[in-house]
Write a structure and sequence with these properties.
By secondary structure, the protein is of the alpha+beta class. The protein has one domain: 3-Layer(aba) Sandwich (NADH Oxidase), CATH 3.40.109.10. It is built from nine helices and four strands. Strands 1-2-4-3 form a four-stranded antiparallel sheet, sandwiched between helices. The longest helix is centred in the N-terminal third of the chain and has 19 residues. It is globular. The protein starts with a helix and ends in a 5-residue tail after the last helix. The mean pLDDT is 95.
């Protein structure tokens, strides 16, 4: 069974300056939109940024938000850990392309139960744990990463920087009713062609087969 194309995807954090043709970007996003989604809601929206100055400013916004949020932390270990993440949360700043992935509304049975108010709130919330709305976004994101890797481009699935979601959305001027920034990825030619993925847990640790 040939599944080697899956192994081409790994997190890339350093990129060359080589630009990506717009048509190629469109094909990668189109691949993302072929992902399955609950009730075929397709509750995703992709914002692609190719302006290097705008990408750099978004990184600056993440840095500023990290500093702001740090002032609310009192535990020294957690403060040090959070402040230390800012470098990882801004690795997209050297990429030629930044893709922001927004998640839109998705009504679940939990929402319906809560709205009607018959079932106790705590019990109703149990039916929302699966969060199919965000699962749709995750499926689209994985399609995007695999499509990019198959074409020789590097990506890095990022959710950390979304603590600056409001500032980023305000800066780029994107607003769509009910949508919020759920994830992002840099996109470009990897600077290190020999980079490999991180080790995976043994299959025996994550697989249960019930016959």
């Amino acid at each position: 069974m040939e599944l080697e194309f899956i192994k081409k995807r790994h997190s890339v954090r350093q990129f060359t300056d080589e630009q990506i043709p717009e048509q190629t970007i469109r094909e990668i996003i189109k691949a993302a939109t072929c992902a399955p989604s609950g009730k075929n809601q397709q509750n995703w929206h992709f914002v692609v940024i190719t302006d290097k100055q705008k990408i750099a400013e978004i990184a600056r916004l993440v840095e500023a938000k990290n500093t702001e949020l740090s002032t609310y932390l009192r535990d020294e270990a957690k403060l040090k850990s959070f402040k230390g993440t800012v470098g990882y949360h801004t690795v997209f700043k050297n990429a030629p392309v930044l893709v922001l992935v927004y998640a839109g509304p998705y009504e679940t049975i939990a929402d319906m139960l809560l709205a009607d108010g018959v079932m106790p709130r705590e019990e109703a919330l149990q039916y929302g744990k699966q969060n199919p709305g965000i699962q749709n976004i995750a499926a689209a994101m994985e399609n995007l990463l695999l499509a990019a890797a198959s074409l020789g481009y590097g990506t890095c699935w990022m959710t950390g920087p979304t603590y600056a979601a409001r500032e980023i959305s305000d800066y780029i001027g994107f607003a769509k009713e009910g949508y919020y920034l759920a994830a992002m990825t840099p996109l470009g030619v990897p600077a290190n062609a020999k980079a490999t993925g991180t080790p995976r847990k043994p299959l025996e640790d994550v697989l249960t087969i019930i016959n």
